[in-house]
């Protein structure tokens, strides 16, 4: 079984998160795929940012949903980087992408781009929200989907199956072998996040995970050799 390493918001441990600079660095570091986050701007653009507000990662304030793309472009997202839109990431790197959507509205906007550009083979879609996973699967036939959870109950595997997800992305700090084995018995892959230390990488291997999400390029290199 191959072990995949996903760059978390690019490689946010060394570059400003969710920027083109971070994504290009992730690709140059050999990440198997790049994870990013999508919110809708006031005028419906797929802005690449994790938080609903711009306060933490830019020099601006306020919610993304209250700003137009032009207003978002004026903000510094770190080291002079601007907030990109999803289409720009598609052009900036050629790596496979895992796009996390925050709600059903973002699912519908992403679906339009995926269908227009035939991205089913390149873009995997993830969400914490079961209904968003279900909606993107309905809109984009054949799309690969991921259900994310930080805390979960005994029904997490059943939830993933009901939503049509092929993969579970679960908090490495709470993962147990029981959950992994149950998921694998139902033909679901399991990704651990966020794996930034050698101890967590060894744990990921011991749990027989299918891959990890990481903030740092070094995890990808050492992951090939850690038993």
Automatic annotation (TrEMBL):
Q: Which SUPFAM superfamilies match?
A: PLC-like phosphodiesterases
Gene Ontology terms describing biological process:
lipid metabolic process
InterPro entries to which the protein is assigned, alphabetical: GP_PDE_dom, PLC-like_Pdiesterase_TIM-brl
Q: Which Gene3D superfamilies match?
A: Phosphatidylinositol (PI) phosphodiesterase
Q: From the Swiss-Prot or TrEMBL record, what is one GO molecular function term?
A: phosphoric diester hydrolase activity
Domain GP-PDE spans what residues?
3-224
Tree of life domain: Bacteria
Pfam families tied to this protein: GDPD (PF03009)
User: PANTHER family from the entry?
Assistant: GLYCEROPHOSPHODIESTER PHOSPHODIESTERASE, CYTOPLASMIC (PTHR46211:SF1), GLYCEROPHOSPHORYL DIESTER PHOSPHODIESTERASE (PTHR46211)
The entry's protein name is Glycerophosphoryl diester phosphodiesterase
């Amino acid at each position: 079984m191959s072990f995949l390493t996903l760059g978390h918001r690019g490689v946010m441990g060394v570059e400003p998160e969710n920027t083109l600079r971070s994504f290009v660095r992730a690709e140059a570091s050999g990440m198997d795929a790049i994870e990013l986050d999508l919110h809708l701007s006031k005028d419906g653009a797929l802005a690449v940012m994790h938080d609903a507000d711009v306060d933490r990662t830019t020099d601006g304030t306020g919610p993304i949903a209250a700003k137009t793309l032009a207003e978002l472009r004026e903000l510094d997202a770190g080291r002079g980087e601007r907030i990109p839109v999803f289409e720009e990431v598609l052009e900036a790197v050629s790596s496979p992408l895992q796009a996390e959507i925050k709600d059903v509205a973002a699912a519908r906007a992403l679906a339009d781009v995926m269908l227009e550009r035939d991205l089913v083979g390149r873009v995997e879609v993830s969400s914490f929200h079961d209904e968003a996973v279900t909606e993107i699967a309905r809109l984009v036939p054949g799309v690969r989907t991921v259900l994310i959870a930080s805390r979960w109950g005994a029904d997490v595997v059943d939830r993933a199956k009901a939503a049509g997800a092929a993969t579970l992305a679960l908090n490495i700090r709470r993962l147990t072998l029981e959950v992994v084995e149950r998921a694998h018995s139902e033909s679901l892959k399991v990704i651990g996040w966020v794996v930034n230390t050698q101890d967590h990488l060894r744990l990921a291997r011991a749990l027989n995970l299918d891959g990890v999400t990481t903030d740092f390029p070094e995890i990808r290199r050492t992951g090939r050799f850690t038993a």
